[in-house]
User: What shape does this take?
Amino acid sequence: MREFLLGLRLLFGAGRGNRIRFYLMAVGGSVGVCCLALVLTVPAILDAHDGRAAARQAVTSAKGPANGTLVLQRDDAYGSRSFTRVFVAEGTGGSRQVPPGLNELPAPGEVFVSPRVHDLLRSAPGVKGLLPGREAGVISPAGLAHPDELYAYVGTDRATLAREGRTLKGFGYGYAPFPAVEPSTLTDVRFALATLVLLPLVIFLSVCARLSAASRMRRLAALRLLGLSVKGTQRVNAAETVVAALLGAVLGLGEYWVLNQVMARAGLPGLRWYPGDGALSVTTIAVCLVGCPVLAWLVSRRSARDATANPLAVRRTAVPRPPSKWVGLLLLSGLGIVCGFCATGLMGHPASSLGVNALLVVAGVVLTGVGLVLTLPLLSYALARRVARTTGSLTLNLAMRRNEAEPGSTMRVVTSLVLLVYVASLAQGVLIQLEQVTRPSGPVQEYSLPLSGLTTQQQRDLTAVSGVSAHAALMNSWADPNVDSGTNPAWETVLVATCAQLDRMTVGTKGCVDGKVMRLDNTDSSADSYLKTGMSFVFRLRLDSGQDKKLNISVPNERIVYSGYSASSVGTAVLLVPPSALPAGARPRDAEVLLAGDSDPGRVRAVLDGIAAVAPIAEIELVGLNIQGLEQISVVETLLALGMIMGLVIGVAAFLVSVTDRAVERRAQVTAVTLIGARARTMRAVQCAQVVLPLGLGLVLALVSGKLAESSYLITGGGAIRWDTDGVPLLVLATVGVVAMAAVGSLPLVGRRIDPELIRRD
Assistant: This one.
């Protein structure tokens, strides 16, 4: 305890510089702890979302009391979001349980809505068509997955639900029917967040714990020479680092609390939560308050090793030992694993992510990243020694000799930037893998809407929605159930479109002639093989006058050969009928409007929002994609973007902290060289070279190793994309930007004022 108190006295009594360093360590640590708390709380936010969604889920039975409560749930799309309506017909028997968020079940004609639907009813009155009845109340947060959810309970009579309703047994499932993120996808997201945030975070906290390492080591060596024991010297050193880490942890938790309150109310794209969902748990508080000081203690013990073992050499500034070559084994091991997986892809037999391969991929990525960080001082030392021996430039010689003497000091400045490029490459791979799993397999996304729920003007406006590249209609045939159809099928589907529209909704067509009814021959399907020339189908039409009319269409001999997309409604049609074949002013009684556009998630959301603006109560079917899947894509993209932003903040913060600390540490050395005649311009070039050359070497290695790690992840993921060549220019551009930022950041290392007193200070 005496050594600990001595460390505190030295900290606060050793001048303004030490106090500034202490506060810098605390502030830097608080940024890292805030990011750590955010990463640790993300799973709790998702679990709270899924927990409330599971608790309100109705448990039903097909058989129950004759007078039991009936429920019917409808999940529709409103724009790019899911709109859930639960129709309830309260009975006199059976379960009388009330769902979370309500005090009573809605009576016939009553509607309980979420706050977002409450606002929507006033901004978009057309939504009232989805909610027959009067608004009787608002659902409380206990019954909503998130604040922006579109959810409503609609009270109705038993006769309305007699055919489709199910008897209510209670509320509450053990799992969420539509989780915020699927468990398999959540595993990839956790891996990405750990790589993007936690790995740079450990480096950042280590950098903060080793601020002004040279000055502290000289002070510790002096204490050791005065007779203080080895353990006592380590306790003195730990006093500063541990107290700074503990203060930073407390500040970081406070920063996270403020950030949670702001973000919960403002929200993120695709992700909203209540402030209580992001509240700090006991586990998160314990990890931050205990883990960060423990990490600072371990770093301080390692940094004080030389001062306690050989204090005389530290006081006389003896030449330090070169970095150990054994640390390179970690990098070689990681590269060996990722290169092995890349080799399986090159040979045409890609390895899967099953069994032990799943652990090997993660181990290879982590070993490569950790090995890259630990090997940087060794690489810096080797580069500096070689350049110093061969160069004839005074600037390079001065720069490289300093790097040769203190390779670890230089690499503390550039490690965070090197790691930033490495994890950026991995982030690209994770995004590509998730897009391959969650996005439609084809480049076209189709939207199907019942024609019966649209007016002629709405149908015309839908074709003009921004993002809709093609449109057509799917018309279903009709067969009289009282007449024997013989060999003819009961019903069939035809596509009402022109050749140009068909071409835009398929991969390619051959033999199409406008104005003629033609057979559709899909090269990937044989669904129309039973059709024979001359077969006739009957279609019911409704004229503008209100009269019904029947249209007979016969199967012709001419056909169109086309290739369709994997998820497309066009494949269900057996005939192509030109719009001119329908009588003027006639509308099919059983048909669907088919819209097509780009399958990019952003474009899909824009088209859905455009459809909602034209026909707010229309039932929209996304062909090959459900709206819950689209919402999950938005959540995953938001989480990954949040992880990349945090990684960027941590990396830049580590660089700024290191540059500031290095400027203070090098003042005496810069002053000494300046006093013997070196110009300020030369010193700036020296300081810039000390940072840029080792950084350039580290960035090249990070770029290569990052692309190899990314490729191994994509290969084992089993997707169509295994080599992300499109991402190379972006990473190269980012690398150039990092070098430029480091060069500019190294300029403040040379001050404008020359104080000779600095070279006599200890």
About this structure: Residues 234 and 301 are 6 Å apart (CA to CA). The chain has a mean pLDDT of 76.
